[in-house]
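Archive transcription. Copying these from loose printouts into the bound notebook so they stop getting lost. Printout 1 of 2:
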Amino acid sequence: MDLSDSALLERMQLLDDRAAFDELYHRYWERLYIAAYARLKNEADAKDCLQEVFVALWHKRKAIVIREQLDAYLFVSLKYRVLNHLRNHNNYLKHLDVFSAFPHPILPSADDHLFLAEIQQVISKTIADMPEKMKEVYLLSRRDGLSVQETATRLDISQQTVKNQLTSALKRLKERLGNYQ
């Protein structure tokens, strides 16, 4: 199809034209993927965010009002998906390597190592003391980096149960680590 983005979007919205959607996908997927991968540094996560953008575009096609260029809309949508992904997957264990890559102006002291070891011990004990289902949800989410939906599917429980278990687990950790601030 040699139609403009706005013409394709109009066909998609008014006629539920899947071919118009496919054309828009083929026009933008590669640039969006490169942008997502540049931020996430993970092929699967970049593809997931990209898929979420296009799935949302298709599902919300009747209600979407795009005031700017379609590419600007898609990139802003992708930006928020990537930020949401990072927020949902941000955890100490996953990003520890990133922080350790920064040069330290002063070498850590023995006290620093003891302090970190003590904190890690408190975290490990808190996780070990969690009820089994809470521990399983927490580890799948934070250690393995699964989303709420993926965790719910894997454990065959509702997404709300996953959210509740994560909230309780994080509250326990926050309470136990309160003395270390």
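Printout 2 of 2:
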Amino acid sequence: MNRPTPLAATVLAALALVACGDPAEPTPYEPPEDGDYTPEPETAGGTESTFDHPAELGPPSVSPREALERMQETGPPAFAARVHGCRKVPYRTIGRVLTSLGVDLAADGDSAGALYRRSDQALGAPNYSARIPETTSLSVASASRLFDILVQAAPEVIANLPDQERCMVGETGAQLFDEDGRCTRRGLSCLLGTPATDAHVGLCDDTVARAATPEEGQRIAVASLLAAQLTCE
């Protein structure tokens, strides 16, 4: 017969005492408070090496003053969404638009065609030899160069637009300006590629009236309307 060792006898005696004792009453549950636990940083990230995240949970709160300042800087939400969602017109598409309006892209000197050919990189054209694709966003430099080209092309557009097939109704071409120098709805519709509104005609007439000379005003008006059409403005 095997006798229990002293260690085993001690363990059995302790278990017997625990079994015979009164069961301990459970500690009532108390929910923790916010200040009971403060986590210690366990990673290398800190306030100096990570992005600034909002401390509060839920959607970030913006004061009315901050919202007003942001709207004044970027414009109303509907306008900002439309502008930021507008992709840059490809370089070759700009050339096709100018050609359809009567601009000679093969011209030399100070012509709009020569300026267009020299502005391929400024307008974000692709560089195939360097394997660089065409840019998709319109930068400030690209927008400035595009307007320079349109200002230079405006006299050609005004003179040649009535002879373009896209502006023909029967055998009559659309004139941008009538005999009194006022903007015509039919001519602006052909220029923009969409039906011109009263706002288009009014803006065109106002631009011509504010210029130093009618010729200068017509040039600026045509360039401005074309620039707005090509930049989602």
